[in-house]
Each structure stands twice: as structure tokens, then as C-alpha cells.
User: Fold this.
Amino acid sequence: MHNKTIAELALGLRNGEFSSEELTRHTLARIASLDKELNSFITVSSEHALAQAKAADERLANGNADALTGIPIAQKDIFCTNGIRTSCGSNMLDNFIAPYDSTVVSKFNSAGAVMVGKTNMDEFAMGSSNETSFYGPVKNPWNTNTVPGGSSGGSAAAVAARLVPGTTGTDTGGSIRQPAALCGVTGIKPTYGRVSRYGMIAFASSLDQGGAFAQTAEDAGLILGAMSGFDERDSTSIDKPVPDYQADLNKDIKGLKIGLPKEFFSEGLDNEVARVIEAAIEEYKKLGAEIVEISLPNSGLSVPAYYVVAPAECSSNLSRFDGVRFGHRCENPDDLEDLYKRSRGEGFGAEVKRRILVGAYVLSAGYYDAYYLKAQKVRRLISEDFKQAFEKVDVILGPTTPSVAFNLGEKADDPVNMYLSDTYTIAVNMAGLPGMSVPAGFVNQLPVGLQIIGNYFEEGRLLNVAHKYQQVTDWHQRTPQGFE
Ligand code: GLN
Assistant:
């Protein structure tokens, strides 16, 4: 059952091959036996899931089921869940029980999906390896000495290990695409504003965007369709109808213009990863696509500009965790200042503190123009590059990451090197564009991700382009040893 896609499971549920309760019990049993090694879950919500499964079975029997009714899914632990702990991977929120559901979670609830738990993540979504989580690192199911990527590493690893057929994630600089690539699963980050951020704990508000992980593009479209849509409670949510992402999945891609940015294939890209991506491009040629060389001249500035903008926004967003309004409170404070200092000192981990310090610095009087304002100007240049590129091409293809999964601990003491693992993903967030990663092969028995970038609100086209590739390849069906 656990190797089936969401589309297949939905069919099985409808045809009465198994009930949602059976499927949910099977899922929970797999998590209980296999996740000890991976640590991809922070919280498993068994009782809640079984109650939802029973309700889904009734709905299925009554014939008013949606695509996700009765399907087990897991939420990244950044989405608030009413009555269930929402930790954001931090000691700061270790005991936080949200009093409401995020919009994303309530949308899954109305679709009748079954939430089996909350997945592990880098603390406050800051990281590229899932090693900054207060709950310990997540292991990559392809090789448990390597990282799953971050920050949505738990969500990616859980799908790769076939613990659950679909999960949610968030992507501020690459946190869906990068772990999807490193774990060999399909991940999509939609256009900024497509998925509501209400109840999604904020890291860098102008970049954060929710999205999906699944085995296939078809499934990723089912999840994305369920979680997307306008929300008046998020002022950056966009009021635009959500298309049926299944409708165009099979559309012919003959004549599709694919842009290859030369900056994504230069120094810094592992040779063997490059070869895998070139082979994927050959597949697209066979499918009738036309390849066009393009340039994104400012993409090299995306990592440095991001590490000004994202920390600036995080220093402001995280100021609410002061032990008074939100978050961990220290024992026996001497006075208010001591309470703030010790609560924040104890609650936050090292990477989060580093970001807050950098953010406060770049926003401070005297430095604002030199750093923050400058970074915003660079951000505009990056967006302009994409705008020009999309005048010539329909989609942009390239590697998702410069290398395959690295070893646990390998980059933990080298933040700049760690930051560079998002070198091909961050520009997409800076411009607010949609991006995807699909499994495209292996190097040293570790998965390689192919990145597909589209113009604003072209999620349907990305899913179509990914689906066509998945019809002629089987990389997305490979399962790590021990998790078959
Ligand atoms: N790795 C990047 C960071 O640490 C991106 C994280 C994310 O997308 N949430 O900021």
C-alpha cells in the first residue's frame, strides 16, 4: 500500500479495496517502526489521524469524497495545528499548542485528508541540512550518514522512505526544492501569494511560501490544488482562481521552449550532477522541446542579497518570541531585561541567533542603505533577469543543487558553504516565481534533482513539464533500500 501514489490510493479507497482506517493504521505502523532511524517526525498524531480516517471513510461511503479524502499526509511543523503541538523545530516553541489551524491545515481538513503528524525541520526553517532542529537531525533514507537537505527535510525524507504519500513544506530560499532533490522526491514551491501564509510561522515574510512534496508531479498537483487559494487573512495572498492542476498534466510539450541559464552550468556544479542534468535535457529534446541558452546575469548575487533580506525580516518576525507574548520563558527572572535575555538565549539555537544578529545589524541606522536597501535593489535586478528570460522561453531548467546530499556534520561549522547549497534555488524566491524539483538520476547512489522554473502562476505548466518527464523515466519510482 505504501508504494502507491496518492492518485492510486484515492482510487483504491473509492473502489473499496481498503478503507482509510486500514491505510492510516498501516501508515502509523510504518512510521512507528521505520522513523526511529530517520527522525523525520517531531509529532505523530495517531488518535487525531484515526478519528479523521473514520470520518473520511464515512464521507467515502456517502459518495462526497474529494481527491484527498482519506489520504494520509503530514504537515511541516511550521503550520499551526489546533490542539496539536507546533514547534517550528525550536525549543522556543517546544510546548506550543496552537489554538487555531493555519489556513493550509484547515484546507486539508475540509478536503478530508488524514494528518498523521508534524514533520521535522530546521529551526524556524533556517538551514539547508535539517541539522539545526532542536529535535535532532533528520537522516536521508538513501544513506543515513547524509543529510536530507533543509529546511523541510522531514517532509522530504518521509515521502522518500514511503512513510506517507504526501507532505507539505515551505520554501523561503529553497527549502522545498533542495530537500526534494537530495531525497529523490518531487517538490513544488508555487508563486509567492498562491498559498496562504496565515498560521504558517513566519521566517522571512516576503519570501516564505508553502508547497508540496510527493512521489509524482501528478500527486504534487493534487496536494497543491488542495492547499492553494485566496485567503483574506493573508494580505499577500493573491485573489486568482486555482486551476485544475490535473487538467493539463498530459499536454504535449512539443515545441516547448526550455531555457538553460549558463550561470547554472558553470563552476561550482559537480561534474557528475551536470551529466545527470544533461541526460534529463536529452529526454526533453526527445519529447520535442526546443533548447535555448539564456543568461540570468545577476543570479550570482542571489545568495549574498538573500542573506541580507532574509535575516532582516527574520530579526523582525522573531522579536515576538520574548517569553512574554510568545515562546519559552526562563525560570526566575531578576527583572524584565533578564527575562528577555535569558528566554531568548535559551529558546533559540545558534543558527537562529546568527540570523537575528545579522538582521538587526543590516537594519540598524547607518547601515540600512549600505546593506538592506542595496539588497532590495539587487532583488529587483534578479527579477528583471527572469522577466527578460521568460520573454524568450516557456520554462527554465537546471540543477536544483550543486551536489548530491552531503554528510551529516560536513558543513555544520561552515555556514557560508552551507548557504551555497541553495545557490540555484534562491533567485526564484527573490523573484517570487514558482519552482519545482523532480528526481532525475543518481550520483554515488544518491538522488539528483532537476529544477524546473516557470513564470508567475505557471504551476500547471511546471507540473505538466514534470509529468511528461516522469512518463518516460522511472527515477521518481526508485525507493531507498530498507524502505521498499
Ligand atoms: N537554506 C536557506 C536558509 O537557511 C533557505 C531556507 C528556507 O527556504 N526556509 O535560509
Observations:
- The first strand starts at residue 41 and ends at 44.
- The chain has a mean pLDDT of 97.
- The chain has 15 helices and eleven strands.
